[in-house]
From TrEMBL, chains A, B:
Residue ranges annotated for the Beta-hexosaminidase eukaryotic type N-terminal domain, each copy included: 25-168
Alphabetically ordered keywords of this record: Glycoprotein, Glycosidase, Hydrolase, Signal
GO BP terms in the entry: carbohydrate metabolic process; glycosaminoglycan metabolic process
Name of the protein in question: Beta-hexosaminidase
Limits of the Glycoside hydrolase family 20 catalytic domain: 193-532
Catalytic EC class: hydrolase
Signal peptide feature range: 1-19
Length: 585, 585
């Protein structure tokens, strides 16, 4: 291979190409990302080493067992697959019919990258990270001489760096080469927020395992690290629990819509391999009416009507409080489930949103809707369940109402998920809670598409035009405008705000529209959560700077098999930030 | 085969099943649809006859040539494929784990349908229908003895009847049988409006031929009959015109995003075979700036900035008026294109929306933005193009501004497409125009998902929360609430309202989200346009009655390969119109 620099005319244009976005990454690395104007190829026979030892060729997909080196090895294989097999020719990201000015000539004089040296400085495999101890930082350099080096303290950091590395490259229009346009590259990258996730509701509508794994792919490509599976709700119980088989046998929508223990393990392992912590929520004591299909004596107000009196959405139903049978049931449930998920995650979500006091008028052990009566019972309930979570080696999460509505005292290890908007996130953090932000005004990706409730003609007139409760649609720009810690100056408060999760409540989402609703809008939040809301100059990141890179990233998502929606028409992607597509100040 | 009626216990339940929607059709047949409670199987060896002659077996897909009998033959093959190969087990449409109560027992005593006798009473093949002369009516009966008869005046009517026939059947959970639940069936069905379509914009984003054909599938399943392809706009010219090759060579986004003459023919033939008239629009004299890529002297204001002064969306650009080179160009364009499409359609759309007078300040032959100067030039322009359209044997269409903004006099054969809402449709019809309704407040399926224009931080504050111009999202309920002729009592005015078209402008739509945005919302309008806004009792059709059938129909769309969005969660589809899913008066 001739290591010969090619610099003149073409590369002056490549500079423009870089400005057009061909040198763009999503999320943008920070604090350091410098790049040049030199194009390099990458060899299909690239040699990848880990701490000096040859690791993997592009045809070796590595082991699936969980260790630092195996995580790195399989990560390398996937990155090379994404470069060589799931890449794209970026004609849609350069001016019409000008691609030849942007991609390098294959004249034998261009340098190829034929080695990637990975240094993992710790042996800690972070396949079971908690928000506090996960280190996802990495350094990546690519010289004009074609030497690529990636180093990190953790295998997860290496995975993040490999994702960045893979995003540097394009397929050449000849189909015979793959290239980058912006060497030399120097990246020192680390996340702003440790918690960057998506919540998927598999109870209102079911999602096959393949959908969940594809969602994990999208998260990892976006350098996001949490998949929160809201696995049950009052509508269905798709989670197979071997010690309580009736739960899914009677509560799943159908026996073809069940997650077996092997499915759960497979999903979690898939996440671990990609640096995505998959954790689960069994919402309680509300949002769990479906338990009544198998164990009617354990719940109250199941499918009680009118639902608006007893819950937020049909069917209603809550676990009885102060009931030993419920506690026996939950003991058995958690004894079954928690040990199986604990090897792969540090979290378990006990829910706790929208509990309706009216339900407990029907609870023979309670017979009251008085919060003064209910609160101590709920305190005991939460204490008991959280002890079980902790005993399994996991940290509990709750929805914010447990704290803000019910004044339940929770442990300092509990992460509070906030969705109600306003100042809730900051208030919770200021009062000492660890918080993740799912503000429905910004992060509810299901919103703004109309109602799933239908209305009689008499009622329809007053409900016209049939909007859902949380419109407008959260466009990528709206998602991108949000920073969980915006305006927070107190350091302790700020450090309590761990990050955020985009929510995909699934009343009108299933396999058919999951990808187009999730992506790239979740990725828009992914950049804010990784790179921060402020750019190098301390200003809010601009939609105008972001759009070309998000157009590029969306093309990568599509090339890699995710059905992500376009954010602009091709005329805009061809002429990134052309007048009209972008409105400068 | 034992023709033996099976009536007792199971079939009493089947009545409930029918109420649950298993006997539902979309759009609902009218004026006559009666059905019973008897389940029948359908034989895979069903013999289908056309006017007494054996037509096709389920393994013979028929000829692709265009004749009444070949249209019927291939329609039969597709209907049988949809029944036997692209069907579904309707577990999601009956109460949880109650499917066995709804599907027939395969005990050898149940009657099978083993013949379908089709009667075509006219030899007119309506593969080139116009709104005035297409007859899509049909009669369909299925007796309890398993005799199926379908008759129509036209091959298109037979196709509509075959669609209905195919929608009667479900796959049995055994995988070994297919059945209906509601014999005897008597249907006399005919459309309310003759024009029931979708407009797809292939210029803002390109759609591969497969996407267009799949859209035709969705239209035919919805008994809709028009696909209006807005094939060019100022952004791109994907239409290959052999006599003017530079148009697409320079104006397509890329050479992989071009419709060849063979593609166009293939799309139209695909439509003809399915009773869908595919017609095209080359929008002019505005919305055509891209011609300037190949012929800069023919357009003015191409990509002029700020775009807001010169057009509605970048890039601007309009054909020069009063210019012989433009007329020569258009003569050559139409001489090439029109004879190729005319065998398959009766229409050509010359556009005419959003023409901006400011553009003509830059036209050396005009030098004016005075509508008094421009109007007669536009009149001549329209007259000339419409003469060309007519000379090719086609009827012109225009957007409403040609009439309502520019006071251009158009022929009585011209169909006016209205999008501006308010009373426009009714006003145009009252003044004697044939009108189709694309009211943006109801029928713009792209709306309500946020902006594609990006904003600097300075401007973003005033643009928050980044809504597009035409929100909210047009939910299926909103689409379904609209009747183009609502409130019109004058018979002549009413007859001028031909129907409507749902619009899919593609600034933020491409292959990845086309299906989920188009379906089943377009189908919701399809029912109103076919079955009418009023039900048998003269009341507006209710969302509550419609939702179970639309849930069912959406499952069919998915089973047949369209990525249609869910309109409700499975809990609602399982318990159709359960409390909470439906709010009765």
């Amino acid at each position: 291979m001739t290591r010969h620099l090619l610099l003149p005319v073409v590369l002056a244009v490549v500079h423009t190409a870089s400005a057009q976005g061909l040198g763009g990454l999503w999320p943008v690395p920070q604090p350091v990302f410098t790049s040049g104007e030199t194009s390099l190829l990458i060899s299909k026979d690239i040699e990848v080493t880990l701490n000096g030892a040859s690791l993997v060729s592009s045809t070796n997909h590595g082991s699936s067992s969980v260790s630092s080196s195996s995580l790195v090895s399989s990560g390398v294989s996937r990155a090379l697959d994404n470069i060589f097999s799931s890449n794209f020719v970026p004609w849609m990201l350069v001016p019409r019919y000008k691609l030849s000015s942007y991609e390098p000539a294959l004249n034998g004089t261009i340098v190829s990258i034929d080695s990637l040296a990975i240094t993992l400085t710790s042996n800690n495999s972070t396949f079971k990270p908690t928000a506090a101890d996960a280190d996802e930082s990495y350094n990546l350099t690519v010289t004009e001489a074609g030497e690529a080096q990636l180093s990190s303290f953790s295998s997860t950091g290496v995975l993040r760096g490999l994702e960045t590395f893979s995003q540097l490259f394009y397929e050449h229009s000849s189909g015979r080469a793959w290239y980058l346009v912006n060497a030399p590259i120097d990246i020192q990258d680390a996340p702003t927020y440790p918690w960057r996730g998506v919540m998927l509701d598999t109870a209102r509508n079911f999602f096959p395992v393949a959908d969940i794994k594809r969602t994990i792919d999208g998260l990892s490509y976006s350098k996001m690290n949490k998949l929160h599976v809201h696995v049950t709700d009052s509508q269905s119980w798709p989670l197979e629990v071997p010690s309580l088989p009736e739960l899914s046998a009677k509560g799943a929508y159908t026996q073809s819509q069940v997650y077996s223990p092997a499915d759960i393990q497979s999903i979690q392992e898939y996440g671990v391999a990609r640096g995505v912590d998959v954790y689960f929520e069994i919402d309680m004591p509300g949002h769990i009416g479906v338990v009544g299909e198998a164990y009617p004596d354990l719940v109250v107000a199941y499918n009680m009507e009118p639902y608006t009196t007893y819950c937020a959405e049909p069917p209603c139903g809550a676990l009885r409080l102060n009931n030993s049978n419920v506690e026996d049931f939950l003991g058995e449930l958690f004894d079954d489930v928690l040990p199986r998920v604990a090897p792969y995650t540090s979290y378990w979500h006990t829910g706790g949103d929208e509990l309706n006091a009216q339900d407990y008028l029907f609870d023979p052990d309670v017979n009251s809707n008085d919060t003064a009566v209910l609160q101590p019972l709920l305190q005991d309930f939460i204490d008991t369940q959280h002890t079980r979570i902790r005993n399994a080696g996991l940290n509990p999460l709750v929805w914010e109402e447990i704290v803000s509505t019910w004044n339940v005292t929770i442990g300092s290890d509990v992460v509070v998920q906030s969705w109600l908007g306003g100042t809730a996130v900051q208030d919770l953090a200021a009062s000492g809670h660890k918080v993740i932000d799912s503000n429905y005004n910004y992060y509810y990706l299901d919103c703004g598409r109309g109602q799933w409730i239908t209305w009689s003609n008499d009622l329809a007139a007053s409900d016209f035009p049939f909007n859902d409760w949380c419109g407008p649609t959260k466009s990528w720009e709206l998602v991108y405008s949000h920073d969980p810690a915006e305006g927070v100056t107190d350091a302790a408060t700020k450090s309590n705000i761990l990050g955020g999760e985009l929510a995909l409540w699934s009343e009108t989402i299933d396999s058919q529209n999951l990808d187009s609703l999730a992506w790239p809008r979740a990725s828009a939040a992914g950049e804010i959560l990784w790179s921060g809301r402020l750019d190098d100059s301390g200003q809010n990141r601009s939609q105008i700077d972001a759009a070309p890179r998000l157009n590029l990233f969306r093309q990568r998502l599509v090339a890699r098999g995710l059905g992500a929606s376009p954010i602009q028409m091709e005329w805009c992607t061809l002429q990134q930030n052309a007048s009209g597509c972008a409105q400068p100040a």
